[in-house]
Amino acid sequence: MQTIRGFRDILPEHIRLWQKVEKEASGLFKAFGFQEIRVPILEKTQLFSRSIGEVTDIVEKEMYTFADRKGDKLTLRPEATASIVRSYIQHKMYATDPVRKFFTIGPMFRRERPQKGRYRQFYQIDAEVFGIESALIDTQLIFLLNELFKRLGLTGLSAHINSLGCPECRPSFQKALLDFVTSKKESLCKNCLRRMEKNPLRILDCKVQACKEAVQDAPATLDHLCDDCETHFKTVKTSLKAQGVDFIVDKSLVRGLDYYTRTAWEIQTTTLGAQSAVAGGGRYDGLVKELGGPQTPGIGFAIGFDRLVEVMEQIEKTPEKEGLDLFIISLGEPAMEKGYLWSCELNQAGIRTEIDFRGKSLKALMKRANKLNAKYVLIAGENELADNSVILRDMNTKDQVSLSIETLVPELIKKLKLTK
Ligand code: HAM
């Protein structure tokens, strides 16, 4: 049996970086006032089609959708924003305090063509903020992302930002865009001709080369912003500059989801080939209302966890080796029983201790201790037990000392905690 195409196991030898990122991210989120939220992996299909948009690649081609036994249409979540917005509305969170900040970490599902950095089950670190219209929160989220990447030692990333306008300025942009794409009709793919009728903005991120070339000089939302959106975007830029956060204004950045308004951004890397976006986000000031809640501005981002770890693996030259504090070699049944009890006490005290129960020879067990990268080995055989003592070997210096059984555990705890 094998995993499904595009799905993968994340094996213990790769987990260290995942845990490092999780620890750093949740610490930072908490410091910035975010609370963790966990939402279901399965939702009604309608939630995603209404928020992400019917005429988007995600909804048209990539969702894992099926009817359950009662015939209800359900979808494995392709992203977390829609679910968090649903939760915000369902629990009437706006009634107690409309300003809420959430983060969540978990798997998402999109049936894309698998390649490096692109999987059908992938993980996101997602953050969402409700109830704040000020452009300073846009800046703060980009700053937060920047800070997280800095702490993780990432370099060579660039923040691409754009403004997608609002319902006030959209019609003027859409008219200009429609005129433009109509003039390029001949060069567009079949899908884009359909998009032209239903959702012309999506033509701007069509992956077909001919379409990409045809829309190179297409009108940009940035040139059609209303005064409020213009001022909002200006504040984002000046406050980012004031904080020393580098960015590139990228007129062509439209993002692949329909809910965005005003600021949208992506953090891109040059080290992952075609899959260059390690994080993406933006404002969605109309989404809470669209899904049945009161008018509430929203903004957030998601980091591609798999991609982030891949970038970190490329940077990390000599990965730190995980190891044990102590490996217990018990020779013979009575020593095994004692060794077992010592190991449990040491485990309880937080000392990474392992004992081998298989009754192998000293030579075989020393080999295993080396393989497990143990700092110390405790050797307890029949002779030692008769003497009420055991041998502790420092695997680095090869020094050996004899320790009394009576005070063994407290002494080991003291010694091994000091070497941590
Ligand atoms: P997104 O741009 O669709 O935005 O995804 C965010 C990030 O998830 C991408 O930049 C990428 O790193 C990662 N990602 C997406 N698809 C895959 C895949 N198939 N394999 C591996 N990684 C992938 C969203 O999902 C929005 N919900 C972000 C957001 C939150 N906007 C506002 N709030």
Structure commentary:
The chain is of the alpha+beta class. It is built from 16 helices and 16 strands. The strands form 3 sheets. It has an 8-stranded mixed beta sheet with strand order 1-5-6-11-10-9-7-8. The two termini are 41 Å apart. The model has no long low-confidence stretch (mean pLDDT 95). Bound molecules: histidyl-adenosine monophosphate.
Q: What does the largest sheet look like?
A: 8 strands, mixed
What is the strand tally? 16
Strand percentage lies at: 15-25%
> Overall mean pLDDT score?
95
Distinct small molecules: histidyl-adenosine monophosphate
SSE arrangement:
Elements: H1 12-31, E1 35-36, E2 42-44, H2 45-52, H3 57-62, E3 64-67, E4 73-76, H4 81-90, H5 93-96, E5 100-109, E6 121-130, H6 135-151, E7 157-163, H7 170-183, H8 190-198, H9 209-214, H10 227-242, E8 248-249, E9 261-269, E10 277-283, H11 287-290, E11 298-304, H12 305-315, E12 324-330, H13 333-348, E13 353-355, H14 362-371, E14 374-380, H15 382-386, E15 389-394, E16 400-404, H16 408-419
Parallel strand pairs: 1-5, 7-8, 12-13, 12-14
Antiparallel strand pairs: 2-4, 3-4, 5-6, 6-11, 7-9, 9-10, 10-11, 14-15, 15-16
This protein binds histidyl-adenosine monophosphate.
Residues 79, 81, 110, 112, 117-119, 122, 124, 126, 128, 256-257, 277-282, 300-302, 304, 306-307 line the site of histidyl-adenosine monophosphate.
